[in-house]
Design brief:
Elements lengths: L3 E6 L2 E8 L4 E7 L6 H12 L6 E7 L3 H4 L5 E2 L5 E2 L3 H20 L5 E6 L1 H12 L5 E5 L8 H5 L8 E8 L13 H13 L4 E9 L7 H14 L1
Parallel strand pairs: 3-4, 3-7, 7-8, 8-9, 9-10
Antiparallel strand pairs: 1-2, 2-4, 5-6
Length: 229
């Protein structure tokens, strides 16, 4: 396994795992407590890929998970505050991280965006908001987020894009009224994407377990799908 390198892009530390000089680039938004997420996911990914498969995965971080990955404001009944500054994170990707990718790995690289939980929701939203991503992986994404249906119904994916969705089979068993709708929301999202002529490849995979079961392995399966489909 090639080593994981750290570098700073516009005052933010990112981690880069590069295998070979070819292949696509996947940008993965992680949290402050996920220092080993990339190395764990890569170990799982390498078990699935062939020896000559090439790719680049870059993880980036935000200062505040609830604030910086939420696309708009939301206040839950339990008092959880989502401040809705996802646009700032998207601007960082567009203005800093994507130019870094093009400068260091080539102008013509296909770039994908991926995330888990709220980062998964953010990734799907960012995918819809721009035409710079060739595809997206939304794993156990927070599609229960208020007004997501109204937003997504009006959006089209970028042309010739790949989409990977995944969910844990027990996630809908949550006692939280928002999270209990997650399977229904995922099926709605799958239906939207199937009807979207711009989507070239769509995978919706159900995994065993709840929301917190094997997230790095689930992300590795997402990366595999984006790399190989």
């Amino acid at each position: 396994m090639n080593e994981i390198k750290e570098t700073v892009v516009n005052n933010r530390t990112v981690k880069v795992h590069q295998k070979g000089k070819g292949g696509s680039v996947i940008l993965w938004g992680v949290g402050d407590n996920e220092d080993e997420a990339l190395s764990k996911a890569v170990l799982h990914l390498e078990e699935m890929l062939k020896a000559d498969d090439e790719y680049i995965i870059i993880t980036y971080r935000v200062e505040n998970w609830f604030r910086d990955y939420s696309p708009w404001k939301m206040l839950t009944d339990a008092g959880e505050v989502f401040e809705g500054l996802g646009l700032n994170t998207l601007c960082y990707l567009k203005e800093s991280l994507v130019p870094f990718v093009k400068e260091n790995f080539g102008e013509n690289k296909d770039i994908y965006i991926a995330g888990y939980s709220l980062s998964g929701l953010f990734s799907l939203w960012a995918f819809y908001e721009t035409d710079i991503f060739k595809g997206v992986a939304c794993c156990s994404g927070s599609l229960w987020f208020e007004n997501w249906d109204n937003y997504a119904e009006c959006k089209k994916a970028p042309k010739e894009s790949k989409v990977y969705l995944s969910l844990g089979g027990k996630e809908a068993n949550s006692k939280n009224k928002y999270m209990a709708t997650i399977y229904e929301q995922y099926k709605k999202q799958e239906k939207r994407l199937k009807a979207d002529a711009n989507v070239k490849s769509l995978v919706f995979e159900m995994n065993s377990g709840g929301h917190f079961a094997n997230p790095e392995k689930r992300m590795a399966k997402a990366f595999y799908s984006l790399i190989k489909s």
